[in-house]
Design a protein that fits this description.
Blueprint (H helix, E strand, L loop, with lengths): L1 H114 L2
Length: 117
């Protein structure tokens, strides 16, 4: 009889242990699923934040590049104007030098013709 009682107790303990282990496994699995869902949510939130930040920087640098491009175009325009002014001044100086040469030649010719009877 004592053996039967011990067997029943052992059986009950084994059943209880099995039930407890199943319950623990189930709860661990549920906890893992909740943790994984939470981790996924947080990763997704981080991704969204990173993408938003990258987009913000992208817009900011696009504006900076547009401003730099405008300034570059302005500098190119100024360079063209200065170059045109320099070319004009150089042409003016050449014309002035040619005019001085012509004036000297005219002066020489006037002297020569003034000496003729």
């Amino acid at each position: 009889m004592e053996t039967r009682i011990l067997e029943k107790v052992d059986s009950r303990i084994e059943q209880t242990e099995t039930r407890i282990l199943k319950e623990v496994d189930s709860r661990i699995e549920q906890t893992e699923m909740r943790i994984l869902k939470e981790v996924d949510k947080r990763i997704e939130k981080s991704e969204v934040l990173l993408l938003d930040e990258m987009e913000r920087y992208n817009r900011q640098y696009e504006r900076r590049f547009a401003t730099l491009e405008q300034r570059e175009n302005q500098l190119k325009d100024i360079y063209r104007m200065v170059k045109n002014e320099n070319d004009t001044i150089n042409l003016f100086l050449k014309d002035h030098q040619n005019l001085e040469k012509l004036e000297r030649r005219v002066t020489i010719l006037e002297r020569k013709t003034a000496c003729l009877p």
